[in-house]
Specification:
The protein is built from 13 helices and 20 strands. The protein is an alpha+beta fold and 389 residues long. It folds into two domains: 232 residues, FAD/NAD(P)-binding domain, CATH 3.50.50; 122 residues, D-Amino Acid Oxidase, Chain A, domain 2 (2-Layer Sandwich), CATH 3.30.9.10. The strands form four sheets. Strands 6-5-14-15-16-13-17-20 form an eight-stranded mixed beta sheet, sandwiched between helices. A hairpin with a 2-residue loop joins strand 10 and strand 11. The radius of gyration is 21 Å and the shape is globular. 45% of the residues are buried. Bound molecules: adenosine-5-diphosphoribose and P-hydroxybenzoic acid.
């Protein structure tokens, strides 16, 4: 079998790249370890930068998002009862789009099927071979048969636990990591969101976030110790914790209900350098992880896809390898800025075990500065809606 671009991983990164390439007549095959239903069963964040929205439009998959997504012009940051409103449209000239990652992935799978593009699900033993040569290939097992896929390039879009990153020899690869001493317990509930914007709250009991998917589907989170198990949290315990951590005006009017999903996610900052080795490109979670506080996971994957897509277009349409040579540097330059923002939001809004009174004063001072300074609000707004590609 032969294709131009072998895409490892059928998450949002791999699917978006596949769809963009398909629209330009560049052939790509996607290899996914799980089933489509399994991939679509994963609940992830739901805030899309305008750059991501534009890429979805370029990929021809923006119709449902434009109909069902909700544009948010701002967000609320709370510290106890004190609130700061960040106006995205005023300070950054753009809103963000609230539309679940699951829906993004579903739209991309639907488009891929409609286009008749090839996807292998439930692949096993994916191995990336001769990546440093001009003739790379991928071997894998599918439905009990050994297969070989020859290609020009390989896009490693297989997430944090994939094989692509570890194909790069340890002597070439440097990994940077920060693990936070807490997780987020998140629930989905079929209740109206408490507010028409997201609320990020730093309270004495820890961080909380009020988010949403649509008018009758809310997504809420509370910071919790990593030793907690989701099943040990009753719905009642969750709602009690959430209400204690958000300003009273919201706690009083929040509509509670049974959770339809409940899970705990650890928080981590991670970057692998470089993001290209020979003809292998790392994209999305395969190369970097951010803590979810700035809603940057999917958005930072999208900027990689933007750089790689344009690099491949330059190669196939203009016979130039400039974009390919520049890929890792360009992607990492933006990733590190996004890492900084996600780390800053995380540091500002959480209660850290062993946090001393000085650290708490620093958080308060930071928030007071944000409250008083339009420049600080503008900096937050510009990062939140997304730095330019
Ligand atoms: N072979 C084939 N597929 C694999 C392999 C493998 N060895 N290992 C992992 N995969 C698949 C996973 O099953 C998954 O479907 O790769 C896909 C990677 O998808 P994601 O983890 O969703 O990563 P990515 O597509 O980069 O998405 C970006 O944005 O909100 C964030 O972290 C969130 O996943 C999200 C990310
Ligand atoms: C979500 O809706 O799941 C969500 C929103 C914003 C974040 C993180 C998660 O920062």
């Amino acid at each position: 079998m032969r294709t131009q671009v072998a895409i490892i991983g059928g998450g949002p990164s791999g699917l978006l790249l596949g769809q963009l390439l398909h629209r330009q007549g560049i052939d790509a095959v996607v290899l996914e370890r799980q089933t489509r239903d399994y991939v679509l069963g994963r609940i992830r964040a739901g805030v899309l930068e305008e750059g991501f929205v534009d890429l979805m439009a370029e990929a021809g998959v923006a119709d449902r998002m434009e109909k069902e997504g909700i544009r948010h012009d701002g967000t609320v940051l709370a510290f106890g009862e004190q609130q700061v409103h960040i106006d995205f449209t005023r300070f950054a000239g753009r809103p963000v789009m609230v539309y679940g990652q699951t829906e993004v992935t579903r739209d991309l799978y639907d488009a891929r099927e409609k286009a008749g593009a090839e996807t292998f699900f439930k692949v096993e033993d994916v191995t990336l071979c001769d990546v440093e040569t001009d003739a790379p290939y991928v071997t894998f097992r599918h439905e009990g048969e050994d297969k070989r896929l020859d290609c020009d390039y390989i896009a490693g879009c297989d997430g944090f636990h994939g094989v692509s990153r570890t194909t790069i020899p340890e002597s070439v690869r440097t990994e940077f990591e920060k693990v936070y001493p807490f997780g987020w317990l998140g629930i989905l509930s079929e209740t109206p969101p408490v507010h028409d914007e997201l609320i990020y709250s730093n309270s004495e009991q820890g961080f909380a976030l009020c988010s949403m998917r649509h008018r009758m589907l809310s997504r809420y989170y509370v910071q919790c110790p990593l030793t907690n198990k989701a099943e040990d949290w009753s719905d009642d315990a969750f709602w009690t914790a959430l209400k204690a951590r958000i300003p009273q005006e919201y706690a009083e009017r929040i509509v509670t209900g049974p959770s339809i999903e409940k899970s705990i996610a650890p928080l981590r900052s991670f970057v692998c350098e470089p993001m290209r080795w020979g003809r292998l490109f790392l994209c999305g979670d395969a190369a970097h992880i951010v803590p979810p506080t700035g809603a940057k996971g999917l958005n930072s994957a999208a900027s990689d896809i933007y750089y790689l897509y344009h690099a491949l277009l330059e190669h196939y349409q203009e016979k130039s390898t400039a974009g390919i040579e520049a890929y890792s540097g360009r992607a990492l330059a933006r990733i590190w800025k996004t890492q900084r923002f996600s780390w800053w939001m995380t540091s500002l809004l959480h209660r850290f075990p062993g946090q001393d009174p000085f650290d708490l004063k620093m958080q308060r001072a930071e928030l007071a500065f944000l409250n008083d300074s339009e420049d600080a609000q503008a900096a937050l707004a510009r990062n939140y809606v997304g730095l330019p590609y």
